[in-house]
Amino acid sequence: MEKEKVILVDTNDQQIGLMEKIEAHEKALLHRAFSVFVFNDKGETLIQQRAEHKYHSPGLWTNTCCSHQREGESNIAAGKRRLMEEMGFTTDLEEVLSFIYHAPFDNGLTEHEYDHILVGKFNGEPNINLDEVASSKWMSLKDIKKDLEENPALYTAWFKIIFDKFYTHIEAQSTNI
Length: 177
Fold this sequence. Notes:
By secondary structure, the chain is of the alpha+beta class. It has helices spanning 21-27, 75-87, 141-150, 157-173, and strands at residues 5-9, 15-20, 31-39, 44-50, 61-62, 65-67, 93-104, 110-121, 133-140. Helices cover 27% and strands 36% of the residues.
């Protein structure tokens, strides 16, 4: 089976190459990624707890799903694909924000990503893939913000970064999600 590759990009999100995912994380090279936030009609967002056997950040809470686009795959198509693979459902997604972040891990890997934040709506319970996700729950953005402040060790490094950017964006838009 071919190893998963990520799309290497420049600071304008223009593709400059492909590289195996693990190598890009070892070398901390900038690559394209996406982060999905799914909301229900109550304004809560679905967060997931990563499976315990994941190679980094096992057992930590994070956004609904996130991953890397495949070559030739749009941000929206990638988000829908991964949402189905991890959470067992799909929904319409909209891109609301993109930015670059850098997050090193204790295991020597580094997330250096041009991240596209995608938002969707779903009412129901996910059918989680236990190979990827240990658990999931719905929480309000305010409750997540408070829990991130009180219990930061329970969350992935990238979620702390992307949540702050996303929350700030939402507040600036004065949108009631």
